Amino acid sequence: xxxxxxxxxxxxxxxxxxxxxxxxFAILLRDCAHVLGVGQDQCVLVSSDCRSFAxxxxxxxxxxxxxxxxxxxxxxxxxxxxxxxxxxxVIHPDGSLSCWxxxxxxxxADMVQDKLLADVQMVTGNSAAWAxxxxxGSVVTWGERFAGGSSGCxxxxxxxxxxxxxxxxxxxxxxxxGSVVTWGDAHDGGNCAHVQTELTEGVQQLVGNPTGFAAxxxxGSVVTWGxxxxxxxxxxxxxxxxx
Length: 243
Description:
The chain is mainly beta. The protein has two domains: about 5-75, Phosphatidylinositol 3-kinase Catalytic Subunit, Chain A, domain 1 (Ubiquitin-like (UB roll)), CATH 3.10.20.90; about 120-240, Regulator of chromosome condensation 1/beta-lactamase-inhibitor protein II (Methylamine Dehydrogenase, Chain H), CATH 2.130.10. Helices cover about 5% and strands about 35% of the residues. It contains two helices and 16 strands. The strands form five sheets. The chain has a four-stranded mixed beta sheet with strand order 2-1-4-3, with helices on one face. Strands 5-6-7 form a three-stranded antiparallel beta sheet, with no helix packed on it. A three-stranded antiparallel beta sheet has the order 8-9-10, with no helix packed on it. The relative contact order is 0.10.
């Protein structure tokens, strides 16, 4: 069981304890809120690499290890941007989301605004679109269709989502059953058909670069897809990546 610390933004320690791999962030939030005497819905846990997590995400699924430190943010507005993007998004303390910038590149969410009025847990952007995770694990997208702003073709699969990561023009979502769903530009990771059988279960970590994605499975093996010459093809190092 990893020993994890939760601190305030000032560095003051709130909790330092061992947590089983199946412990959810909802439990961590509940315990921290109880210690501080604040409402759980006002709190967000952020990792050292600036990730936040859906309440249903577990310690294992988040990839937390012994000695990791989480920061508890209370009642704060969180702002998000993609380094090559043309818009911004903000999650307010009440769980609503606002965005602005180039309207066609994600700065206008009018088409889905009714779904962004409450319960937004996390939002991820790429160069031209956004994907927001709701408290129920569903995903709301907007922006350029080709870049993943439209996820209608994957709507029935986008539930139980724990985390969404982005390439320049595609998204990949890690679900609570260990599977991965992708959408957006096929060349930059939006299509994982050739490795789909390896992404139906057992994925514990998911990362992206501007042109593709890499997933770590429970057995330690690594699965990649996207632009072959920019990391999407890892066949040259297949043996070392087998766990």
